[in-house]
Write a structure and sequence with these properties.
The chain is α+β, with helices and mostly antiparallel strands. It has helices spanning about 25-45, 70-85, 90-95, and strands at about 10, 15-20, 50-55, 60-70, 100-110, 115, 125-130, 140-145, 150-160, 175-180. A hairpin with a 4-residue loop joins β8 and β9.
Length: about 180
């Protein structure tokens, strides 16, 4: 079943997420370009990006880039430096050419007790719910929104949610996702 990675505790970990959607007729090419892009970023910066493919629902082209860090100023400096690297433009453009719509960015603040070395593992499930919504699953990690999803909390579980613990209807205002690591 699911577990949380244990290490030193802090309330200062941030979890950055960038969502993209690959064109439905170009999913294989898009996934390859996305993985190459993240590998390039990891080789040229300190961001340590992970790549994910959504494995539930009817969105086979939904992808997610994530990283965790403790210092937001450092993160912003690394992203700004990335944008100045001459060879990054073509790498980013190769992925961008296979995606559609606008990227969605979310940044989450950890709550007390989240380990400094927290990581999602090889797969994770996430529920994004109206702020204050309690989790019916004791081992889920709660994150409060810092950017991109105002008025919402995220509950992240390394593994799968037990069946039926979250409402699956749009009226609930809850977004359910399951992500498999591809990079």
């Amino acid at each position: 079943m699911a577990q949380i990675v244990a290490a030193g505790e802090t309330a200062g970990v941030q979890f950055f997420q960038r969502r993209r959607w690959i064109q439905q007729d170009r999913v294989d090419d898009g996934l390859s370009a996305f993985v190459r892009q993240l590998a390039w970023i990891n080789d040229h910066t300190g961001l340590e990006m992970a790549g994910w493919r959504r494995s539930d629902g009817d969105l086979p082209g939904a992808i997610l880039a994530t990283t965790t860090y403790g210092d937001h100023a450092w993160f912003l400096t690394e992203v700004a430096r990335l944008q100045t690297l001459a060879d990054y433009g073509p790498v980013n453009d190769a992925t961008l050419a296979l995606t559609l719509g606008e990227d969605a960015f979310e940044r989450w603040d950890s709550t007390a007790g989240v380990p400094t070395a927290w990581a999602p593992g090889p797969m994770f499930s996430q529920v994004t719910a109206p702020e204050g919504t309690p989790s019916p699953c004791e081992v889920a990690t709660r994150w409060t929104n810092a950017e991109g999803s105002v008025g919402r909390d995220a509950w992240v579980l390394v593994g799968d949610w037990p069946a039926g613990v979250w409402p699956a209807d749009a009226a609930s205002g809850i977004r359910l996702e399951r992500w498999i690591r591809i990079h």
